[in-house]
Automatic annotation (TrEMBL):
The keyword Protein transport does not apply. Pfam families: PMEI. This is Pectinesterase inhibitor domain-containing protein. Residues 29-188 form the Pectinesterase inhibitor domain. It comes from Deinandra increscens subsp. villosa. Residues 1-26 form the signal peptide. SMART domains: PMEI.
Length: 196
């Protein structure tokens, strides 16, 4: 009797395991789509980590993937802008630091505006084809590329040994985060443009 019970239990365990595997396989296409798409960008781990929570929305759509990547870049830019605004009010800043933060804030605000325009322009791509699609897509690529340049330019004001210190390190951390997600977004936008 006991061997039969053991066999039945083993059989049940295998059935439950297989049922669990099938369920995870149903979720897999969107996750593997994100993974394979992120494999082509400059920062693949960050790409996968930031986009995975949106797998259900993205499914296997390159357009949705590009849109979500831009939305992540926009959110990161807003967060960096808010951070720089707070930092600018800090009382212990040296005049050069305050000036560099002000310049950086301007660059980040420009970047934010360009990414925001790109998201709107990408929505227009859904409704057009042919030359019109290429034109709208070209706008998106130009603006995201310019946004990335703005973010990188932000650090120029912190050049030289005189600017070394906590403020520069702190600003660099913020700018690096936003530049990395924007770089990934640009790669995914370019990939979507090529597939269309």
């Amino acid at each position: 009797m006991e061997p039969k019970i053991a066999t039945s239990f083993l059989l049940l365990t295998v059935v439950f395991f297989l049922a669990g595997t099938t369920t995870s396989a149903a979720v897999k296409p969107s996750s593997s789509f994100i993974r394979s798409s992120c494999a082509t960008v400059t920062y693949p781990a960050l790409c996968e980590q930031s986009l995975s929570p949106f797998a259900e929305t993205i499914k296997t759509s390159p357009a949705e993937l590009a849109r979500t990547a831009l939305a992540i870049s926009l959110k990161q830019s807003q967060s960096t802008q808010a951070y720089l605004n707070k930092l600018k009010k800090f009382k212990g800043l040296k005049p050069r630091e305050r000036s560099a933060i002000g310049d950086c804030l301007e660059e980040v605000s420009d970047s934010l505006e360009r990414v925001s325009k790109s998201i709107q322009e990408l929505k227009r791509c859904d409704r057009v084809k042919g030359q019109e699609f290429i034109w709208h897509m070209s706008n998106v690529q130009t603006w995201v590329s310019s946004a990335l340049t703005d973010e990188n330019t932000c650090m120029d004001g912190f050049g030289g040994r005189v600017m070394e210190g906590r403020i520069k390190t702190s600003v660099r951390g913020q700018i690096t985060s936003v530049a990395h997600v924007t770089s990934n977004a640009l790669a995914l936008v370019n990939s979507f443009a090529q597939k269309h």
